[in-house]
Specification:
By secondary structure, this protein is α/β, with parallel strands linked by helices. The chain has 14 helices and 14 strands.
Length: about 425
């Protein structure tokens, strides 16, 4: 088997090593994909993140149960809205005339002193108060309204409730979504109190079995103008939530009740002592950053695993390694060709040719190169200058010139008898 054929067969059986640039390009694809996915996750979390997602009807919450849509709609309709979680700020903002104070949730965390301070400020300036579904806490604000417990559930009530009262905002809004809690007058015949949207239908019934009369002082909306502070109780929180404010007449009813004055103060009480707790380091880190870092950790491990496997398993080889001479020759030739070392390759061919010719002419090992060149010129009859150029001085600048010199070198060697 010839050396060339041997090299061809071995080249077909072996796999060329993957260049470093190719490995880097492949790794770059994985890195770029991980970055794109991470950015997508972060943008998605930013677009869907909610301020106070556990705080229903919070004025900054864009979640389904938040109240941001209500607040922003009121601002668009010319109402000056002030939002706060601080009781003192709410009290100071409520000093202005033509102001309504709205407590959308968490009214149960207010102490009797807090409630008395707010109501005193409102009463001194002739301003009103709106509560959204305060539950039994309503009795801490007034002794004229209570939760109506004189109903017996028989199943699912009507999906919508009719006003059944002369209140202008309720008449304009019409039917609204039905809630779960009904409020009523604390004492029968309380003057200055209007109740709208009573729970009626096949799903509820009064304990005594009497029918609900239009204008009766019980319902999901209570407007009390007879107390020290004008008070409105919105009994169904879904009327003001982002998800359901656009259903039925919910938006019309809530916005009408809250836009009766030019200035609205939205006070969202927080648990006592919550503001006194010093923030930790994690409080300053966005939630999306922590989620992204946790998500990126397995991606980095997978990437390292993929890059590590690209180098292949470890190869065991017995030492010393014996390399055939033909492999060395062809290996050096390949290195010369890859590095475009034409002069080095030509020098190797010239030296081998001179050694073969000297042996053919029976010249001793002490014979110098000029003597060998003169013998070649004499035996072939060629010009000594041409022989000197081919075997010594010619320097090829291109692969074509190198090929021509090698062919001429081979032809001259073949002319030696």
């Amino acid at each position: 088997m010839s050396a060339g054929l041997d090299v061809a067969l071995r080249g077909a059986r072996t796999t060329a090593a993957v260049p470093l640039s190719a490995r880097l390009r492949s790794a770059g694809v994985w890195i770029a994909a991980a970055v794109v996915i991470l950015i997508t996750v972060i943008v998605t979390m930013l677009m869907t993140s909610d301020r106070g997602e556990d705080d229903p009807l919070h004025y900054d919450s864009t979640s389904r149960g938040g109240g941001k849509a209500m607040v922003e709609t009121l601002r668009e309709h010319g109402v000056e809205v002030t939002t706060t979680e601080d009781g003192e700020e709410a009290k100071q903002a409520a000093v202005r005339s033509d102001t309504t104070l709205l407590i959308p949730a968490n009214s149960e965390v207010l102490s009797p002193g807090d409630i008395a301070g707010l109501e005193s400020t409102l009463a001194e300036n002739g301003n009103g108060l709106v509560l959204i579904d305060p539950g039994s806490t309503v009795e801490s604000f007034t002794d004229r309204i209570t939760v109506n417990d004189n109903l017996r559930p028989l199943g699912s009530p009507d999906a919508v409730s009719q006003p059944n009262c002369p209140v202008p905002s309720a008449q304009a809004a019409g039917a609204v979504s039905t809630g779960e809690v009904e409020y009523a007058e604390a004492e029968k015949g309380t003057s200055g109190l209007s109740a709208c949207y009573p729970l009626t239908g096949p799903g509820v019934e009064e304990v005594d079995g009497t029918e609900v009369a239009p204008g009766s002082a019980r319902g999901q909306l209570i407007v009390d103008e007879g107390g020290d502070v004008p008070l409105t109780v919105i009994g169904n929180p879904e009327w003001a939530m982002n998800q359901t404010i656009d259903e039925e007449g919910n938006a019309s009813l809530v916005l009408s009740e809250l836009s009766g004055s030019s200035h609205l103060v939205v006070y969202y009480p927080q648990q006592s002592g919550a503001e006194d707790t010093p923030p930790s380091t994690l409080d300053y880190v966005p939630s999306w950053f922590i989620a992204g870092a946790v998500w990126l950790l397995p991606c980095v491990l997978i990437l390292l695993l993929v890059l590590g496997r690209r180098f292949g398993p470890l190869a065991l080889e017995r030492l010393p390694a014996v390399v055939p001479a033909v492999e060395t020759v062809h290996g050096r030739a390949a290195l010369s060709a890859r590095s475009h070392d034409r002069l080095g390759a030509l020098h190797t061919l010239r030296t081998a040719a001179l050694l073969r010719i000297a042996k053919r002419l029976a010249l001793g090992p002490e014979t110098r190169a000029p003597d060998i060149l003169s013998q070649i010129a004499y035996k072939t009859g060629r010009d000594p200058a041409q022989i000197e150029s081919v075997f010594v001085s010619a320097a090829p600048r291109t692969d074509a010139e190198l090929t021509d010199l090698v062919h001429l070198l081979t032809r001259i060697e073949s002319e030696i008898p």
